[in-house]
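Re: folding output
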Amino acid sequence: VQLQASGGGLVQAGGSLRLSCAASGRTFSTFAVGWFRQAPGKEREFVAAISRSVGTTVYADSVKGRFTISRTNAKNTVYLQMNSLKPEDTAVYYCVAKSLGVLVTTADGVDYWGEGTQVTVSS
């Protein structure tokens, strides 16, 4: 499956952005999908994940209550709504997919990585 993320940009602290990730190549509904991010000088980290059936979501503690992951299988798209952004949310954000399993929450469990999209939050 090919993944293409978009929607990144520059925003002030407290602002919002919505990332989108369009998938192509295979049946999107059969994949668990999620988002990871990597800040300069830091390791890539898990952000949010959603199950194939849209029944289960999980978030990193650092974004819980501020970010919302969702998916529309009919449009082969996964979204990440980011509210109350903080400077520490600055990173390249990657959408990911996993062909087996319920959720994808670890980097070594990812089968497909998309191109990243830069999110910069100014203070």
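--- second protein (sequence, then structure) ---
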Amino acid sequence: VQLQASGGGLVQAGGSLRLSCVASGRTFSSYAMGWFRQAPGKEREFVAAISWSGSSTYYAGSVKGRFTISRSNAKNTVYLHMNSLKPEETAVYHCAATYSGRYYLPAEYDYWGQGTLVTVSS
């Protein structure tokens, strides 16, 4: 599976962005998908995940209620809608695919996209 993330950019604090991650390959619908972010000098951090069917979603506490993860298996795409963005959420956002149920752990993911940069200005 190859993953291509897009949709990052510069946004003011309090603004919104929608990230997309398109997967190649016919097995996309078999994978749970996650979004992680990594700020300069910091470790990769779990943001959100969605089960293969889309029926279950999981969020980091810091984004719950502001971010929404969704997917379209027909389009081989997973989305991350981000609202009320904060300057400290400036980071490269990566999408990733996993068969594992331990969605929070980067090491459990088999495939990673290249990331898309989100910059939130104050």
